Amino acid sequence: MRSSREPPRAVSPPEDRPARAPGAGESLRVAEDLSLPLAEITLRTSRSSGPGGQHANVTASRVEASFDVLGSRSLSESQRSLLLERAGSRVVAVAQDERSQARNRQLALARLGERLERALTPPKRRRPTRPTAASRERRLAEKRREGERKRERRPPEV
User: Fold this and answer.
1) pLDDT per residue over 41-60, tens digit each?
2) Other CB atoms within 10 A of residue 64 CB
């Protein structure tokens, strides 16, 4: 603890950082062939209902990341039509898991990337298969057992 007679300590100046707009030049990697600039993603913050929204120094730690599919310039026409069909015109991801707004921002962007990737990935085609001989025999044996059980429940014929 400092006494009142000590001179105040010198505070070192903040580190020099290049001044640039938040998100300038940064992008969200969605797939191998697609990166979305963060300028196309809208981030909104609000008070969290969970961690970070209830402590004494209340912060706006909930982060909502939304992506406008129709307004994007980085999507090809095929990607745009696929996203519109499978995810809609606006894709949204919310994070309020952590107390830190910065961490929730990372989580929201990661979730948004996962949703976009899932919507852009074509579903695997089902290869038609036939039941095996053993499975057919098991099914027929089970049907015989059920039929026999029901026959045993009937009242005796006179």
Assistant:
1) 999 988 877 555 555 667 78
2) 17
